Amino acid sequence: MSVIDVFGLIGILLIIGFLADFLFKKTNFPDILILLAIGFVIGPVLKIIDPAQIAPFSQLIASLALVVIIFNAGIEFEFTRVLSSAPRTLILVLFGVAFSIAAIAAPAYYFFHWKLLDSILLGTIVGGTSSAIVMPLMSRARVPEQVSALLSLESVLNSPVVIVIALVLLKSIVAGEAGIALSSVGVDILTQFLLGLSVGVITGLLWLWILTLLQNEDYNDILTLAVVFLLYFAVEKINGSGVIFALVFGLILGNGVSVGKLLKLKRTAEATEIMKRFTAQIYFFIKTFFFIYLGLIITFGDPMLAALGIFMALTLLLVRFIAVLFTSIGNHTLLSNKGILTMMLARGESAAVLVQIVVAAGIANGSVYPDMIMAVIITTVVFSALGVLIFGKKTDEGEIESEPA
Fold this sequence. Notes:
Layout: H1 3-27, H2 31-45, H3 51-54, H4 58-76, H5 86-110, H6 116-125, H7 131-139, H8 145-174, H9 182-213, H10 220-237, H11 242-254, H12 256-263, H13 273-297, H14 303-328, H15 332-336, H16 338-343, H17 349-361, H18 369-391
């Protein structure tokens, strides 16, 4: 493929990405399914692009997608809108992630005889919901504000949780520490969380003040993104969690005025609409190419792996229902909307990114991850889209009132 051909292909793919996003907004048909299908067609089906040519860059693509997706989720999220839902959201995140990990890890360990850390890693990768799918769906579903806020906040919070746990587990597996005590893994996870959180808060507040000095500069949005990459690198170098940093940094910038009032800061700023739009455009670009790339490497050469992935998705649906029931105890609004709360289990960017990192690490059983996890992603995204059609009536009317959390 010549350089000119590459330019033409990029143009076509970006147009497809725009049309997929447009269709998602108008019909609730998830755009990542379209992007995955396009990648599958131009790769394994028509063989226009050879996935082997892109394979050396897979970990770079995955890591870049990880940072941009998490930071964009933070900067776009209006935390004050969902603050009242935070307690129940933490319960849903805790039970949802824990039940999902256990439900997938137990069969892998007892029936397929995987090692313990490998089994937990598999469960962790599919343990969190996708903000890229859930939040757009919730913005167009006619459900109580409490339900929408709960699901949106959950999708933002649990992705970093599963990413940090998965990366710590992967590091232990690669280092040959399969016999390591789970308590040691837990300490490592807690350390990474605290370091990422601390650096995110401190640098986020500092950067809010710096933005007050740079308000009239044309390229402060580009400088901000550069700082995100630089600090992500620094946090990872000190064995902290770069994804937790990126999320917290984004949350502070996206809610700068509210944070300033809460801390009684004399001078503060907030990410401008231009900065949010710039970040969203970078996110769109990365997401389009990342999910098309994933479509390129899908083979489904072993139907059994795809079938296992579908079974895993059904298992995740069952345990999510249980987690939703625990979360909804004592709240009539949540109990009456348990259907859509259960169906919003779409796995997406975090699972897809982690798969690429796992494959690049070359661990045992790594070759079975792509087809199996892609089947989980596709099935759960379909579940969520059906959930909106069944339980969430699309409308442009005002929000529905609901009881406090």
